[in-house]
């Protein structure tokens, strides 16, 4: 089964999350297929711009906590770290650093792991109904694996959404600079395409240098080191969950996700 659609036209690669029946929740197969699509677009000399979008009502309900693959007889912190370092950290950093401009088009809910998909993109266009949240503190964990919160929202707003678990609306995200533009839901794909077409007309080398300049400035300020170190903090939450109540810790998230799909 394929969870990702991939198409190229007019120098634009469109990568589509296509698991709408599960609100585009991320199992291992979806993430592996998504990473392959990003690499394919990055390696294709005919692609100048990458657009990430999603089918259905919601962009992504985050990690699929209830299945989608075989479960080991015994889950250890070692297994969790191995899986998450690959799929939740390395993938997101790779997508961030692909030397081509990328645009995320986000609608509906974008929860926890969904942030790992849109935050690595260079630009984010959100539908008016978009909501961004990271309620994993309910699981006893300090934030999702790719901890871009402080960079995307600022320190106090980041603490607010983590401490309360409340969603950030599209317009609020635009006000703090996490989102570039908010549009009506029925204009989301059209607007993302228009931006991509405009950017695709720019000199590729100039675009690459501009992206590299901004990303390296963030890295000099500590972005890359912070992402790596906070990932380790995230894993202490898993270690605590394993020692207290086993894995996965799902009960407190049931109510939150009940009305998403």
Secondary-structure blueprint:
Layout: E1 4-9, E2 12-17, H1 28-43, E3 49-54, H2 77-97, E4 102-106, E5 109-111, H3 115-118, E6 123-127, E7 131-133, H4 149-153, H5 155-164, E8 168-169, H6 170-175, E9 181-183, H7 188-200, H8 204-220, H9 223-245, H10 254-257
Parallel strand pairs: 2-3, 3-4, 4-6, 5-7, 6-9
Antiparallel strand pairs: 1-2, 7-8
Helix pairs in contact: 2-9
Structural account:
The chain has 10 helices and 9 strands. The protein has 261 residues and is α/β, with parallel strands linked by helices. It has a single domain (4-257), classed as Alpha-Beta Complex (2-enoyl-CoA Hydratase, Chain A, domain 1), CATH 3.90.226.10. The strands form 2 sheets. The protein has a 6-stranded mixed beta sheet with strand order 1-2-3-4-6-9, with helices on both faces. The protein is globular and about 55 Å long. The two termini are 20 Å apart. It comes from Nocardia aurantia. InterPro entries: ClpP/crotonase-like_dom_sf (IPR029045), Enoyl-CoA_hydra/iso (IPR001753). Pfam families: ECH_1 (PF00378). This is Putative enoyl-CoA hydratase EchA13. GO terms for molecular function: catalytic activity.
